[in-house]
Amino acid sequence: MRGWPEKISDDELEVVRNAGVVLLQRDLPDSFNIQVAKDVKKVGVPVILDVGGMDTPIPNELLDSIDILSPNETELSRLTGMPTETFEQISQAVAKCHNLGVKQVIVKLGSKGSALFIEG
């Protein structure tokens, strides 16, 4: 987590502003991800957050700035504090993510594929 700039330059952000979609990962500092997500959201670039990486709570400021949250089953359990052994349990844990303001969740299910959950 060391060596990342505190603030990303406008020239550097211009690259991601022109992207079709931005994938952020928790291997990067939350402050970096927040800055990128907020900036590209202003210009309509969809943002996906891969939950893998840091095992810390995701700041609300980051959750508010993404379009899709993408955890695997274990990460979803860790994030919500709920079991994710069955599809029903996964659905309930995703509902908790929706309550946190995340509209779309793609849960990676390993050899079983993945599942997209859209709020509503």
TrEMBL record:
Keyword vocabulary terms for this entry: Kinase, Transferase
Keyword Amino-acid biosynthesis: no
UniProt keyword annotation of Metal-binding present: no
InterPro entries membership: PfkB_dom, Ribokinase-like
Name of protein: Carbohydrate kinase PfkB domain-containing protein
SUPFAM superfamilies membership: Ribokinase-like
Domain of life: Eukaryota
